[in-house]
Amino acid sequence: MTVLTALNGRIPSSLLVLIERGQSLRSDAAASFLREEAAGMPKGCLRSGYRDLDAQVVEVARAKAGLTPSAAPAGQSFHGEGTAADVDEPARTWIRAHGAAYGWAKDHVKNEPWHMEYDPATDRHIPAPTPAKPAPVTITPASRPTPAPITINAPEDDMYLKFATNGSGYLVTPDGVLNLTGQEWNLFQRLKNSQAGDYTGDQFLGAEIDIMAAALKRLKAQNA
């Protein structure tokens, strides 16, 4: 149920929303009123909404002059909370039929069928709050342990090159066989004998020894 507060008639403008005909309502009441209009309630029928203290003093004077049936003292009217609306036809009939689901109650003031009051606790059309976006999660991949180095301790004489008649070449060691790359093949052509066959480590010259070391490094990586 809406209650009177110390801000009655002193509602900050930042909490008020202009609806129509120069009339405003408190932001939650205004949002509900606009939802009713979006649902089919005729527009342009809000005669009186929020009243500050001065406006309510004027309304009391009108009541004393017989120009309106009644008016609560300044500071004690729900118009001062921005949650009361005096509504003209045909919107009044629409609210009487559908307004309860939007939080609007009727007939709270005797002899004022136009007076409607908003209670957010009974508004079944308040949108659900937008879920907060989850904070970004940084996933750090687990570091892979560095594999222990593989040591190839084959004696030089246990390693040899094998040239095939189809133009391919291989480095043969007790640890495995490795295809030669094109660059390695070209350098190995510098061996004195280039016909197909096997060549032991004693026949490697300086450049070929460097290529052999590179080939062994690739063999270690292949076995890792």
What does this structure look like?
By secondary structure, the protein is an alpha+beta fold. The strands form three sheets. A four-stranded antiparallel β-sheet has the order 3-4-6-5. The chain has a four-stranded antiparallel β-sheet with strand order 9-8-7-10, covered by helices on one side. The protein has a two-stranded antiparallel sheet with strand order 1-2. It has helices at 27-38, 53-64, 91-98, 182-188, 206-223; strands at residues 16-20, 23-26, 46-48, 84-87, 102-106, 115-123, 160-163, 169-173, 176-179, 197-200.
Mind sketching the topology for me?
Blueprint: E1 16-20, E2 23-26, H1 27-38, E3 46-48, H2 53-64, E4 84-87, H3 91-98, E5 102-106, E6 115-123, E7 160-163, E8 169-173, E9 176-179, H4 182-188, E10 197-200, H5 206-223
Antiparallel strand pairs: 1-2, 3-4, 4-6, 5-6, 7-8, 7-10, 8-9
Q: Beta-strand level of the residues, as a percent range?
A: 15-25%
CATH class of the largest domain: Alpha Beta
Shape: rod-shaped
Number of strands: 10
Helical content (DSSP H or I, runs of 4+): 25-40%
Radius of gyration: 46 Å
Give keywords:
four-stranded antiparallel β-sheet, 2 domains, alpha+beta, single chain, Muramoyl-pentapeptide Carboxypeptidase, domain 2
Task: Give a short overview.
The chain has 224 residues and is α+β, with helices and mostly antiparallel strands.
